[in-house]
């Protein structure tokens, strides 16, 4: 159990508790929120970049923040791959 939420708290409180414990930058938070809004809480880097390209035009910005979330333990590679625009396999990243 975390000191930021109780085991019987709603899922939303648990998610907020994780964010508070880890402390995210604004861009990291936007990337985290993008994953939260996906039906299965997962996406490829290409999907992430497409979704955030108008807010963060540099293609590498979203990917770098996704990498940081991975290193913070908020995302993982579940072993699923999807084809990108160039028909190459991409990792589908998923929220923990």
Brief rundown of the structure:
This protein is α+β, with helices and mostly antiparallel strands and 96 residues long.
Q: What would you say this structure looks like, in words?
A:
This protein has 96 residues and is an alpha+beta fold. It has a single domain, classed as Arc Repressor Mutant, subunit A (Orthogonal Bundle). 47% of the residues lie in helices and 14% in strands. It has helices at 11-22, 26-37, 45-52, 59-71; strands spanning 42-43, 75-76, 81-83, 89-91, 93-95. Strands 1-5-2 form a three-stranded antiparallel β-sheet. Strands 3-4 form a two-stranded antiparallel ribbon. Strand 3 and strand 4 (89-91) form a beta hairpin. Helix 2 packs across helix 4.
Describe the secondary structure blueprint for this structure:
Blueprint: H1 11-22, H2 26-37, E1 42-43, H3 45-52, H4 59-71, E2 75-76, E3 81-83, E4 89-91, E5 93-95
Antiparallel strand pairs: 1-5, 2-5, 3-4
Helix pairs in contact: 2-4, 3-4
CATH superfamily name?
A: Winged helix-like DNA-binding domain superfamily/Winged helix DNA-binding domain
- At the first level of CATH, what is the class? Mainly Alpha
Calculate the terminal CA-CA distance, rounded to whole Å. 16 Å
Number of helices: 4
Strand order of the largest sheet: 1-5-2
Number of domains: 1
Classify the beta-strand content into a percent band: 5-15%
Per the principal axes of the C-alpha atoms, what is the gross shape? globular
Uncertain regions spanning at least 5 consecutive residues: none
CATH architecture: Orthogonal Bundle
Looking at the structure, the CATH topology is: Arc Repressor Mutant, subunit A
- Biggest sheet details: 3 strands, antiparallel
- Extended strand count: 5
What is the H-and-E element order? Answer: HHEHHEEEE
Helix content: 40-55%
What average pLDDT do the residues reach? 85
Secondary structure class reads: alpha+beta
The rounded Rg comes to 14 Å
């Amino acid at each position: 159990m975390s000191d930021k939420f109780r085991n019987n708290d709603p899922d939303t409180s648990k998610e907020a508790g994780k964010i508070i414990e880890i402390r995210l930058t604004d861009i990291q938070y936007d990337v985290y929120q993008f994953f939260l809004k996906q039906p299965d809480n997962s996406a490829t880097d290409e999907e992430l970049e497409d979704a955030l390209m108008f807010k963060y035009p540099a293609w590498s910005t979203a990917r770098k923040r996704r990498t940081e979330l991975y290193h913070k333990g908020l995302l993982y590679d579940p072993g699923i791959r999807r084809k990108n625009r160039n028909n190459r396999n991409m990792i589908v990243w998923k929220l923990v």
